Amino acid sequence: MAGYHVVLVHFPIALWMTATLAILYRSMSDGPLALSIDRALVPLLSAGLVFGLAAYGVGLSVWPIETITTSPLGRNHVMLATWTTAYWALLLVLRWKRGAAIWQGMMRWVSAGLALLGGCLLGITGTLGGHLIGVYTEVSQVLRAIGWEVYTTFYVPNPVLIAIGLASLILAGIGLFGGSRHTNRPV
Ligand code: HEM
After folding, report:
1. Is the pLDDT of residue 187 over 90?
2. What average pLDDT does range 139-156 have in this prediction?
3. 19, 115 in Cβ contact below 8 A?
4. CA nearest 179: which of 86, 76, 101?
5. Is residue 135 domain-shared with residue 169, that is, in the same domain?
6. 3-state SS of the chain: helix, strand, coil percent to 5?
7. Pocket around ligand 1: residues whose beta carbon is below 6 Å from it?
8. CA of 18 to the centre of ligand 1 (A)
Protein backbone atom coordinates (compact mmCIF):
# COMPACT_ATOMS: atom_id res chain seq x y z
CA MET A 1 0.00 0.00 0.00
CA ALA A 2 3.04 2.31 0.31
CA GLY A 3 2.75 3.31 -3.35
CA TYR A 4 -0.91 4.27 -2.95
CA HIS A 5 -0.15 6.43 0.12
CA VAL A 6 2.64 8.25 -1.69
CA VAL A 7 0.30 8.96 -4.63
CA LEU A 8 -2.72 9.85 -2.49
CA VAL A 9 -0.96 12.32 -0.14
CA HIS A 10 -0.44 14.72 -3.03
CA PHE A 11 -4.21 15.43 -3.18
CA PRO A 12 -4.72 16.72 0.40
CA ILE A 13 -1.35 18.50 0.24
CA ALA A 14 -2.36 20.36 -2.96
CA LEU A 15 -5.91 21.09 -1.73
CA TRP A 16 -4.92 22.29 1.77
CA MET A 17 -2.00 24.36 0.43
CA THR A 18 -4.42 25.99 -2.05
CA ALA A 19 -6.84 26.58 0.85
CA THR A 20 -4.02 28.24 2.83
CA LEU A 21 -3.37 30.67 -0.04
CA ALA A 22 -7.13 31.22 -0.59
CA ILE A 23 -7.70 32.13 3.08
CA LEU A 24 -4.65 34.43 3.12
CA TYR A 25 -5.85 36.17 -0.04
CA ARG A 26 -9.43 36.56 1.24
CA SER A 27 -8.22 37.89 4.59
CA MET A 28 -6.30 40.64 2.76
CA SER A 29 -8.88 41.54 0.11
CA ASP A 30 -12.61 42.25 -0.23
CA GLY A 31 -12.39 42.44 -4.05
CA PRO A 32 -14.50 40.39 -6.49
CA LEU A 33 -11.77 37.75 -6.98
CA ALA A 34 -11.40 37.26 -3.22
CA LEU A 35 -15.20 36.95 -2.85
CA SER A 36 -15.30 34.31 -5.61
CA ILE A 37 -12.43 32.40 -3.99
CA ASP A 38 -14.29 32.55 -0.67
CA ARG A 39 -17.39 30.97 -2.27
CA ALA A 40 -15.21 28.01 -3.32
CA LEU A 41 -13.69 27.60 0.16
CA VAL A 42 -16.18 25.15 1.69
CA PRO A 43 -16.05 22.78 -1.34
CA LEU A 44 -12.23 23.12 -1.39
CA LEU A 45 -11.88 22.35 2.32
CA SER A 46 -14.41 19.49 2.03
CA ALA A 47 -12.45 17.91 -0.85
CA GLY A 48 -9.24 18.38 1.17
CA LEU A 49 -10.79 16.55 4.12
CA VAL A 50 -12.09 13.65 2.00
CA PHE A 51 -8.67 13.12 0.38
CA GLY A 52 -6.90 13.76 3.70
CA LEU A 53 -8.94 11.02 5.38
CA ALA A 54 -8.28 8.70 2.42
CA ALA A 55 -4.50 9.37 2.62
CA TYR A 56 -4.65 8.85 6.38
CA GLY A 57 -6.53 5.55 6.05
CA VAL A 58 -4.17 4.24 3.38
CA GLY A 59 -1.18 5.49 5.45
CA LEU A 60 -2.36 3.28 8.32
CA SER A 61 -2.13 0.23 6.07
CA VAL A 62 1.43 0.86 4.78
CA TRP A 63 2.96 -0.80 7.84
CA PRO A 64 1.30 -2.38 10.91
CA ILE A 65 0.68 0.31 13.53
CA GLU A 66 3.08 -1.49 15.95
CA THR A 67 5.81 -1.14 13.31
CA ILE A 68 5.39 2.53 12.42
CA THR A 69 5.03 3.57 16.07
CA THR A 70 8.28 1.77 16.97
CA SER A 71 10.42 4.58 15.55
CA PRO A 72 10.23 8.17 16.84
CA LEU A 73 10.13 9.45 13.22
CA GLY A 74 7.17 7.15 12.44
CA ARG A 75 5.35 8.22 15.62
CA ASN A 76 5.97 11.87 14.80
CA HIS A 77 4.59 11.44 11.27
CA VAL A 78 1.42 9.74 12.53
CA MET A 79 0.96 12.36 15.27
CA LEU A 80 1.43 15.31 12.89
CA ALA A 81 -0.85 13.66 10.29
CA THR A 82 -3.54 13.33 13.00
CA TRP A 83 -3.14 16.97 14.05
CA THR A 84 -3.16 18.18 10.43
CA THR A 85 -6.30 16.25 9.48
CA ALA A 86 -8.18 17.24 12.65
CA TYR A 87 -7.04 20.87 12.32
CA TRP A 88 -8.21 21.26 8.70
CA ALA A 89 -11.51 19.57 9.59
CA LEU A 90 -11.97 22.27 12.24
CA LEU A 91 -11.18 25.04 9.74
CA LEU A 92 -13.86 23.57 7.44
CA VAL A 93 -16.41 23.59 10.29
CA LEU A 94 -15.38 27.16 11.21
CA ARG A 95 -15.91 28.55 7.68
CA TRP A 96 -19.05 26.47 7.16
CA LYS A 97 -20.75 27.37 10.45
CA ARG A 98 -19.55 30.98 10.88
CA GLY A 99 -19.79 31.93 7.20
CA ALA A 100 -18.64 35.42 6.19
CA ALA A 101 -18.27 36.38 9.88
CA ILE A 102 -14.73 34.97 9.79
CA TRP A 103 -13.66 37.90 7.56
CA GLN A 104 -15.10 40.64 9.77
CA GLY A 105 -12.90 42.96 11.83
CA MET A 106 -10.04 41.31 13.69
CA MET A 107 -11.37 37.86 12.78
CA ARG A 108 -9.87 38.12 9.28
CA TRP A 109 -6.37 38.25 10.82
CA VAL A 110 -7.23 35.37 13.15
CA SER A 111 -8.35 33.44 10.03
CA ALA A 112 -5.07 34.32 8.28
CA GLY A 113 -3.10 33.10 11.32
CA LEU A 114 -5.12 29.86 11.48
CA ALA A 115 -4.44 29.24 7.77
CA LEU A 116 -0.69 29.83 8.23
CA LEU A 117 -0.63 27.42 11.18
CA GLY A 118 -2.53 24.82 9.13
CA GLY A 119 -0.05 25.24 6.26
CA CYS A 120 2.87 24.76 8.71
CA LEU A 121 1.34 21.59 10.23
CA LEU A 122 0.79 20.19 6.74
CA GLY A 123 4.35 21.08 5.71
CA ILE A 124 5.80 19.34 8.76
CA THR A 125 3.65 16.23 8.18
CA GLY A 126 4.90 16.03 4.58
CA THR A 127 8.49 16.67 5.67
CA LEU A 128 8.36 13.78 8.16
CA GLY A 129 6.79 11.54 5.50
CA GLY A 130 9.66 12.50 3.21
CA HIS A 131 12.18 11.47 5.88
CA LEU A 132 10.41 8.10 6.18
CA ILE A 133 10.86 7.52 2.48
CA GLY A 134 14.38 8.98 2.27
CA VAL A 135 13.53 12.32 0.63
CA TYR A 136 14.87 15.08 2.88
CA THR A 137 14.13 18.80 2.82
CA GLU A 138 15.49 21.86 4.59
CA VAL A 139 12.30 22.10 6.68
CA SER A 140 13.76 19.61 9.17
CA GLN A 141 16.83 21.91 9.50
CA VAL A 142 14.48 24.76 10.45
CA LEU A 143 12.76 22.49 13.02
CA ARG A 144 16.20 21.52 14.40
CA ALA A 145 17.14 25.19 14.67
CA ILE A 146 14.03 25.89 16.78
CA GLY A 147 14.79 22.95 19.06
CA TRP A 148 13.07 19.86 17.65
CA GLU A 149 15.19 17.05 16.24
CA VAL A 150 12.69 15.18 14.02
CA TYR A 151 14.36 11.81 14.71
CA THR A 152 13.46 12.11 18.41
CA THR A 153 9.96 11.74 19.81
CA PHE A 154 8.17 15.10 19.96
CA TYR A 155 7.20 15.64 23.54
CA VAL A 156 5.53 18.40 25.52
CA PRO A 157 6.48 18.80 29.23
CA ASN A 158 3.61 18.25 31.69
CA PRO A 159 3.47 21.90 32.88
CA VAL A 160 3.06 23.00 29.24
CA LEU A 161 0.30 20.40 28.76
CA ILE A 162 -1.49 21.76 31.85
CA ALA A 163 -1.12 25.33 30.54
CA ILE A 164 -2.55 24.25 27.15
CA GLY A 165 -5.48 22.51 28.92
CA LEU A 166 -6.23 25.60 31.01
CA ALA A 167 -5.95 27.93 28.00
CA SER A 168 -8.36 25.65 26.06
CA LEU A 169 -10.90 25.75 28.89
CA ILE A 170 -10.64 29.56 29.17
CA LEU A 171 -10.99 30.01 25.38
CA ALA A 172 -13.97 27.61 25.26
CA GLY A 173 -15.54 29.58 28.15
CA ILE A 174 -14.98 32.89 26.34
CA GLY A 175 -16.48 31.35 23.17
CA LEU A 176 -19.57 30.05 24.98
CA PHE A 177 -20.07 33.27 26.94
CA GLY A 178 -19.48 35.48 23.86
CA GLY A 179 -21.70 33.25 21.70
CA SER A 180 -24.66 33.49 24.08
CA ARG A 181 -24.52 37.31 23.82
CA HIS A 182 -24.68 37.29 19.97
CA THR A 183 -27.86 35.64 18.81
CA ASN A 184 -28.00 37.11 15.25
CA ARG A 185 -24.90 35.53 13.72
CA PRO A 186 -24.19 36.53 10.11
CA VAL A 187 -23.97 33.57 7.68
C1 HEM B 1 -3.11 13.57 5.88
C2 HEM B 1 -2.28 12.72 6.39
C3 HEM B 1 -0.91 12.40 5.79
C4 HEM B 1 -0.10 13.11 4.95
C5 HEM B 1 -0.36 14.50 4.34
C6 HEM B 1 1.09 12.32 4.71
C7 HEM B 1 2.18 12.70 3.93
C8 HEM B 1 3.22 11.86 3.57
C9 HEM B 1 4.25 12.19 2.63
C10 HEM B 1 4.38 13.52 1.88
C11 HEM B 1 5.07 11.12 2.51
C12 HEM B 1 6.31 11.02 1.63
C13 HEM B 1 5.87 10.65 0.22
C14 HEM B 1 6.86 11.07 -0.83
O15 HEM B 1 7.94 11.57 -0.50
O16 HEM B 1 6.53 10.93 -2.02
C17 HEM B 1 4.57 10.11 3.41
C18 HEM B 1 5.16 8.87 3.58
C19 HEM B 1 4.71 7.94 4.48
N20 HEM B 1 3.63 8.04 5.32
FE21 HEM B 1 2.29 9.57 5.38
N22 HEM B 1 0.98 11.14 5.42
C23 HEM B 1 -0.23 11.16 6.09
C24 HEM B 1 -0.70 10.19 6.96
C25 HEM B 1 -0.03 9.03 7.31
C26 HEM B 1 -0.45 8.07 8.31
C27 HEM B 1 -1.70 8.22 9.19
C28 HEM B 1 0.48 7.06 8.31
C29 HEM B 1 0.59 5.82 9.14
C30 HEM B 1 -0.10 5.53 10.19
C31 HEM B 1 1.48 7.38 7.31
C32 HEM B 1 2.56 6.58 7.00
C33 HEM B 1 3.52 6.87 6.05
C34 HEM B 1 4.60 5.99 5.68
C35 HEM B 1 4.84 4.62 6.25
C36 HEM B 1 5.34 6.65 4.70
C37 HEM B 1 6.57 6.11 3.96
C38 HEM B 1 6.05 5.39 2.74
C39 HEM B 1 7.01 4.36 2.24
O40 HEM B 1 7.79 3.83 3.02
O41 HEM B 1 6.93 4.04 1.04
N42 HEM B 1 1.13 8.60 6.73
N43 HEM B 1 3.43 10.58 4.01
Report:
1. no
2. 92
3. yes
4. 101
5. no
6. 80, 0, 20
7. 2, 5-6, 9, 12-13, 52, 55-56, 59-60, 62-63, 68, 77-78, 81, 84-85, 125-126, 129-130, 132-133, 135
8. 19
Regarding whether 137 and 173 lie in a shared domain, the answer is no
Mean pLDDT score across all residues of the chain: 93
- Whose CA is closest to 18, among 55, 39, 44, 51? 44
Tell me the CA–centroid distance for residue 55 and ligand 1, in Å.
8
Q: What is the pLDDT of residues 113-124, one digit of tens each?
A: 999 999 999 999
From 15, 132, 136, 150, give the residue whose CB has the most ligand 1 atoms within 8 Å, as the site to mutate: 132
Nearest ligand 1 atom to the CA of 10 is 10
pLDDT score of 25:
98
**Do 162 and 177 belong together in one domain?**
yes
- Residue 180, domain extent: 156-187
* Interacting residues of 94 by C-beta distance below 8 A, sequence separation 6+: 102, 114
